[in-house]
Amino acid sequence: MQIYLDYSATTPLRQEAIAAMQTAIAQHWGNASSLHQWGNRAATVLEKARIQVASLINAPGTENLAFTAGGTEADNLAIFGITRQYDKPQHIIVSAVEHSAIAAPARQLEASGWQVTWLAVDQQGAVSPNDLRSAIKENTVLVSIIYGQSEIGTLQPIAELGAIAQASGIPFHTDAVQVAGRLPIDVQQLPVDLLSLSSHKIYGPQGAGALYVKPGTSLSPILFGGGQENGLRSGTQAIPNIAGFGVAAELAATEMSTETLRLIYLRDRFFAHMASVPELVLTGDRRHRLPHHISFCLPRSKITGKALVRQMNLAGIGISAGSACHSGQLSPSPILKAIGYGDHAAKTGIRITLGRHTTEADIDWSAMALRQIIARSVAPEARNQAKETAPTVPLAPLS
């Protein structure tokens, strides 16, 4: 049996997206910037996809959506697109649990003389609105807070955080890569100026993403050349990838209401299976959580998250040790450290993420396998200690 439970890392392409990509490759291979019929056909595909992706987040117009090569580029465009407008270093605010696509640019700005406030989070990984309000300075030019944390699943109070930033006249960006297609997003209601998306998190192809730019938001490009994407992202657009992204976005919007409830049910079913395993400690916010996301750590065990991933892989089950972008590293998870765990515990985190192909049988089998692997891996004395001190995962699904 082969069971894939790493949908936050990437998702398999939908057949409908594959079909759109194949048609684009075979028939719409022109350069969308060309004025002849071959270019016009490619441009038509490009703009249809722009409508499809914009509709997923209820963007007010397609001109407010710039296609990129992925979520990482969208994040970089948001960060550097704001900060490059200033001749001298200013101040930005990010959270301590940002994805590396935000954290790494922020560190680069710090090295260049910028002031960066790394907002602390609570034990569930949530940012306090009061902390954000207190961190704002006269020279703050950007706030960027991740919407749904990819490693621990916590959903941030983005509406409240964005309102605080905008009340001070500060552009607000959120990385919504893990949220889009799983929870409704309405950028006409949500107080965000910039919002990042990624195709391969919603069953589209890798190599496509987008940045929503609120009307009136000033942004400088980070790639220069032909001036595509309204001057924000030069380079000939990858029409097949964007076509697949568009189809995936349209289908995600159509299916979201029922699929999200199904994922929540399966997520809570897995939590219930693991509730009596004393070594496991839930990471992230149990209630305000991505619908498809399950995460634990084993702070009183000697086994690492990566060792659990390898053992589960031998059982034919794909999970991850934290974020896939860090899964090859042996260093402690910066996200688990940010929520209060020490170096050892921060190496024991695992992440299980569900998707449209996940079934109840997959959940039951995978939970059984994980329980058995943990039982074999934990020494009896450690198990007895864990029983005495470890909190349990809530058994009943939360409403």
- What structural category arises from helix and sheet content? alpha/beta
Proportion of residues in β-strands: 5-15%
The global form is globular
CATH topology of the largest domain: the name is: Aspartate Aminotransferase, domain 2
- Sheet of most strands: 7 strands, mixed
User: Count the helices. How many?
Assistant: 11
Going by CATH, the homologous superfamily of the largest domain would be Type I PLP-dependent aspartate aminotransferase-like (Major domain)
Report the CATH architecture of the largest domain. 3-Layer(aba) Sandwich
Secondary structure: number of strands: 12
Question: Residue ranges: pLDDT <50 for 5 or more in a row?
Answer: 386-399
User: What is the CATH class name of the largest domain?
Assistant: Alpha Beta
How many domains? The number is: 2
* SSE string, helices as H and strands as E: EHHEHEHEHEHEEEHEEHEHEHH
Helicity, in percent? Answer: 25-40%
The average pLDDT is 93
How far apart the termini lie comes to 32 Å
Instruction: Please give the order of strands in the largest beta sheet.
Output: 2-8-7-6-5-3-4
Rg on CA atoms, Å = 22 Å
